[in-house]
User: Fold this.
Amino acid sequence: MRSLPLPLALTARLTPVAVLACAGWVLTSGPETPSAAQAAPRTQTGTQSAAGPSTTAVPKTYAAAPAPCASLGKKTVTSLVPGAKPAGKEIPSSDSEERRTCSWNALDGYDYRWLDVSFEIMDSDAEAEKSYKERIADRSGGGVVPGLGDAAYSVVNLTTEDDQETREGVVLARSDNALVVVTYNGSDFESKKAPGTDEINEGAIKAAKEAMAALKDGGGSA
Assistant:
């Protein structure tokens, strides 16, 4: 098989570090930490005043992100990314308890596929819900994915550069204080066309459902 140069946009994506830079996903900061005076314990007689600060920590369903490269089965990886190594490659993270990402990519003949699975752990359900809503607001044109976590949304977009089409699907799903984010895209370098919308959308949803199941099966649970 003769070698074929990749378009600049796709060549850049072959660098795993670029995945996080392109995605630009940043965890939403938590509520402001109370001052020392506010946090100081108070002597109570009877019930606590409604104005007093709460000292009860809200339990988190998920305490840490699970291993992302183990979240998808070999059959799923090879069907969505033909030619990729099932083990995948985990992207370095500044805090592996809060965010972990695994990538699979391969060029099979002239067909190129890229798949990312990310887990993000927030401090509370409310924080995860806020982040989820902000992100789907920035990705119009998609739709709700029923039966996936507490809430899920998928969107597919087509881009063209140097006459080369790339179609990319993104699925965002929330379960309690955790977010699952899947990115799946593909191109055909011979025809310069992209895979169909249904193929990309269904592939991204399939990966998201499997990743969500891995999260709920105990990976990273408190």
